[in-house]
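During the practical work, I selected for study one protein's amino acid sequence and its backbone structure tokens, as given directly below:
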Amino acid sequence: MAGILERIGDSGVIPVATIDHAVNSIPLAAALLKGGLPVVEVTFRTGAAAEAISGLAAKFPEMLVGAGTVLNVPQAEQAVAAGAQFIVSAGFSSGVVQYCLNKGVLVIPGCSTPTEITAALEFGLKVVKFFPAEIFGGVGALRALGKPFGQISFIPTGGIGFHNLIDYLALDNVWACGGSWMIKPDRRAVTRLARTTMSEVLGLSLDREIEGALLDEIEAIFNLSIRERSAPAGALARTKPDAAVGAEAYLIVKTRSMARAKAYLQREGIAFFPETGATSALTPASIRLKRKAGDLCIRVVEE
């Protein structure tokens, strides 16, 4: 369970999908994976949910597939039998929680009041869903709940999108965010929105202006759009050699979350090597880019 919870945190976002026909779940999952999001929650709001989960679990072993809107134990049993790796509910059901704990399945019950959060703590849970997030006070409510309940984290869902995603993820007690803003009938749109979402989650930016061709090259490596930061005039003509990594030159790519950036790099198949002398709690990661002008080190650091 801990490993699955960690992978959800590394993604930062759980796409929530309601599937009317199980066959539609395969292209949707493929589009999410292509966009850099290896997790999906299939809600039990339709009769196709269990079949969709079963098909996704068989087709995409690299993807975390969960069941959402699980209201009772029979639904939880059906979801687990279909291959769901985690269970999410809108409210708190002690029966569902106990069933999942007995089965060793990660459960994320909905908790929007101090009483429900206390009940979750009594079951030993470390992460719960906060739903509907915006209706129940949003960022302000979670900030307030963090004071008496510092030992638990939340996955807010409901009313979250590009306009407020980073506000939630900036909170220390937010594990990830859930939502359906990237779930569209057009699968190309799903991939585009998933990439845009991951760009927001990671917040990659450059510490200097660089030439257009090199920026294109770097964005291709990350499979994401990188926002250029204001910097003094003068592109990366030739920075000082970086003896520490043996590269001819280097530039800095900053991220909101080193842990999520490293996890994303690994999922994208990007090899990186650790450095010493970290400027944050986590050691920077570097990627060596081979170029005609000499090796370039792309150093990723946390803001």
About this structure: The radius of gyration is 21 Å. Residues 187-202 form the longest helix (16 residues). The first strand starts at residue 13 and ends at 17. The chain has a mean pLDDT of 89.
